[in-house]
Amino acid sequence: MNTLSDRLNRLSPSATLAMSQKSSELKAQGIDIINMSVGEPDFNTPDHIKAAAIKAVEENWSRYSPVPGYPELKNAIVAKLKNENGLDYKPSQILCSNGAKQSVCNTIMAIINAGDEVIIPAPYWVSYPQMVLLAEGTPVFIDAPIEQDFKITPEQLEAAITPKTRALILCSPSNPTGSVYSKAELEALKNVLLRHERVIVIADEIYEHINYVGAHASMASFDDIKERVVVINGVSKAYAMTGWRIGFIAAPEWVVKGCNKLQGQYTSGPCSVSQKAAEAAFAGEQQCVEDMRQAFERRKNLIVRLAKEIPGLEVNNPQGAFYLFPKCSSFFGKSAEGRTINNSTDLAMYLLEVGHVATVGGDAFGSPECFRMSYATSDENIVEAMKRIKEALGKLK
Ligand code: PMP
Ligand code: GLU
Q: How far is the CA of 234 from the centre of ligand 1 (A)?
């Protein structure tokens, strides 16, 4: 009687949100946990954005918005894409949703048929394969281990494409690895894709501004493939607005129309007040973005230095986002405090319960040899967390 649909039974819960929930539960019991599980900026939303939202409430922006978002917000996004990315889009090519998460899911639902293959480089953000499964598509993974800085090569991409391939999901800067594809690397992948006309690129650029190597490169900047690129972005990460829930796609009109139809039946336009806040974020001064980026870069340098001092961890040098994804497989098979570590989920549980630091095992990201730490937290927390992790890992024999 009380059985969920097969569709839901096939779905795994979000490991990032689950670990964050577990960490909150332990905190509520009075245990001093440092939460490096969920990926969200620890900053407050900048004041001018909050002021725009308060004004929107007072001015009664309280009714349904158009399904793809208010024209003013879409215009602000068109201007952002032009000014920051050099990309030309019309307002009819923009659709705003309830966070970039919905933007990715809408796109997948709009273009994937049962049995279509979707190429996902691994490590990947936990939700991509699950969204593909929801759409009855088949995720096809390309392994990009730490030895190749967690990035796929053109040869790997070519080898993974079949007549059933319908999409590639490329996240740069990457969650969970922090790797960033340079313009030349994107171009090499693009040249492979040009040979396969059916493949759409879902370019998740939500970490665009949290970049330590300079200018952001977008797959949509190549004119010969732009008609097959769906850019995903939003305000969550750049403007510390995870709770406001505004993301968008910039895409060919046929994709936008499809997502509009889906969203119109499913969730309608996103929150009216949040849209006014997002408009202020895109149209307002951008110094706040740079200030937060600098703080993330300082923390990145700190956590990389401390992680490199921990025997048994292998660490890359992330070029963006706010995650560190060390390889930890040297601890597999070791034991301490009555527990044996068999995989990265065991390791994350051990670090939570023994070290009181919440991280996420790499299994959920398709990389069981690694685990993820979000360093979107204070310098003091980073120092203390790394001390605890070092001690806990040092006990494993
Ligand atoms: N893509 C990636 C790679 C992410 O890490 C996130 C953050 N959860 C999202 C999309 C979704 O962002 P939002 O909070 O805007 O839904
Ligand atoms: N992107 C964040 C993360 O990966 C938020 C959690 C989520 O949406 O899964 O931790």
A: 8
Q: Which of 43, 89, 14, 55 is nearest to 235 (CA)?
A: 43
Note the pLDDT tens digit of each residue in 72-84: 999 999 999 999 9
Distance (Å, rounded) from C-alpha 216 to C-alpha 235?
Answer: 16
Residue-wise pLDDT for 230-264, tens only, equals 999 999 999 999 999 999 999 999 999 999 999 99
- Tens digit of each residue's pLDDT (9 = 90 or more) over 11-60: 988 888 888 888 899 999 999 999 999 899 999 999 999 999 999 999 99
Beta strands 335-336 and 339-340 are antiparallel
pTM (global) more than 0.90: yes
Binding pocket residue ranges, ligand 1, CB within 6 Å? 39, 99-101, 104, 125, 171, 175, 204, 206, 234, 236, 242, 247
For 6-66, strand residue ranges (E) read 34-35
Q: Is there a cis peptide before residue 173, judged by omega within 30 degrees of 0? A: yes
CB count within 10 Å of CB 75 equals 15
Q: How many Å apart are CA 304 and CA 214, to the nearest integer? A: 19
